[in-house]
Design a protein that fits this description.
Layout (H helix, E strand, L loop, with lengths): L2 H9 L22 E8 L4 E7 L6 E3 L5 E2 L4 E6 L5 E6 L4 E7 L6 E3 L5 E2 L4 E6 L5 E6 L4 E7 L6 E3 L5 E2 L4 E6 L5 E6 L4 E7 L6 E3 L5 E2 L4 E6 L5 E6 L4 E7 L5 E3 L5 E2 L4 E6 L5 E6 L4 E7 L6 E3 L5 E2 L4 E6 L5 E6 L4 E7 L6 E3 L5 E2 L4 E8 L1
Antiparallel strand pairs: 1-2, 1-35, 2-3, 2-4, 5-6, 6-7, 7-8, 7-9, 10-11, 11-12, 12-13, 12-14, 15-16, 16-17, 17-18, 17-19, 20-21, 21-22, 22-23, 22-24, 25-26, 26-27, 27-28, 27-29, 30-31, 31-32, 32-33, 32-34
């Protein structure tokens, strides 16, 4: 078992789980008001759902929640239209798809769900148009691609899928333009870049050699401007930052990597692209940074890091940019924060943290 697997095994030994990696959700930068939050609960194999108070950010469980998933859901995401939820199930090698009841937030399985994935799928993302789904398959060393039926939410494998990645791909993301995809390869310490065929969803590798990252890159995200890519390096405790050229290729920016805190798990940004937030697994906290929109460089926000529950796996900012949420695998909870749009600082919301089902690994936010 690799080093990250041992870390997870120690964390969750009391639950009888032996894990081998982490998972991250896709990042869609839509102009919307938060309505529902969906949480992938690994140990209880279900999805916990909450409604969001759009004024305060407070969470209330949705009637009927939690909703059954496949075996050990690792990551969850919502399509840009807010109609469908997708979860990758690590142990059953499949994708669960759900239709969202726009009034209540309840989930109903999409016809044909679950859909087959590769071996141990752990990360899932949709392109900004909601046409394609991409899944990183950790032990297959590849990425599965699907076209989306926008009426039903059903998935159909793209011709030529799966597409090869590096060793143990841990995270996949799509640039806001929808033209490029990037994969963080945990064991090969690099980032694969792909051009996306806008008609078919086919991935074509960009350049001959993946861009080198730090030690054990475990998450990747592109900022809302599409100018920079950010990679969390779990073992070297830092963030690699790359400029993206017009062809989608990556080049390290001056000053990269930037220190993050102990064991950064995932990175997200507010919709304006002014701030970056990093879930710090080893520090039970979120590190917050201001982004230099010219250079891509990071500078710590005053008061950072901000405390969360134990072992935060994911931090997400809601589509309005008002609130942030973390999935805390070590304390079975969701921490909720109000986001200061001037400074980037986080303040715990009254009533936070909120209880989840067993061992939440990721979360996604649906807007309206």
């Amino acid at each position: 078992m690799n080093r990250l697997g041992k870390v997870f095994g120690a964390l969750l030994a009391g639950c009888g789980i032996a894990l081998v990696t982490a998972s991250f959700v896709g990042h869609i930068f839509a102009k919307a008001v938060p309505k529902f939050v969906y949480v992938a609960d690994y140990y209880s194999s279900d999805i916990t759902a909450y409604s969001v108070d759009s004024s305060t950010g407070a969470l209330t469980p949705v009637d009927g929640s939690p909703f059954a998933a496949g075996q050990n859901p690792f990551a969850v995401t919502v399509d840009p239209s807010g109609k469908f939820v997708y979860a990758v199930n690590y142990m059953s090698n499949e994708i669960s798809a759900y239709a969202i009841d726009n009034s209540t937030g309840a989930l109903a399985p999409v016809s044909g769900s679950p859909f087959a994935a590769g071996q141990n799928p752990i990360s899932i993302v949709l392109d900004p148009a909601g046409k394609f789904v991409y899944v990183a398959n950790y032990h297959s060393n590849n990425v599965s691609a699907y076209s989306v039926n926008k009426s039903t939410g059903a998935l159909t494998a793209v011709g030529g899928s799966p597409f090869m990645a590096g060793m143990y791909p841990a995270s996949v993301t799509v640039a806001p333009s929808g033209k490029f995809a990037y994969v963080a390869n945990y064991a090969s310490n690099n980032v694969s870049a792909y051009a996306i065929n806008s008609s078919t969803g086919v991935l074509t590798a960009i350049g001959g050699i993946p861009a080198p990252a730090g030690q054990n890159p475990i998450s990747v995200v592109v900022d809302p401007s599409g100018k920079f890519a950010y990679v969390g390096n779990y073992t070297s405790n830092d963030i690699s930052v790359f400029g993206i050229n017009k062809l989608g290729a990556l080049t390290a920016v001056a000053g990269s990597p930037f220190k993050s805190g102990a064991n950064p798990f995932n990175i997200t940004m507010d919709p304006s692209g002014k701030f970056a937030y990093v879930a710090i697994y080893g520090g039970a906290s979120v590190s917050a940074f201001t982004i230099n929109t010219t250079t891509g460089g990071l500078a710590a926000v005053s008061g950072s890091p901000f405390r969360t529950g134990q072992a935060p796996m994911v931090v997400m900012v809601d589509p309005s940019g008002k609130f942030a949420y973390t999935a805390n695998a070590g304390s079975n909870s969701i921490s909720a924060f109000a986001l200061n749009n001037a400074t980037g600082a986080l303040t715990a919301i009254k009533g936070s943290p909120y209880a989840t089902d067993a061992v939440p690994f990721s979360l996604a936010i649906a807007g309206k």
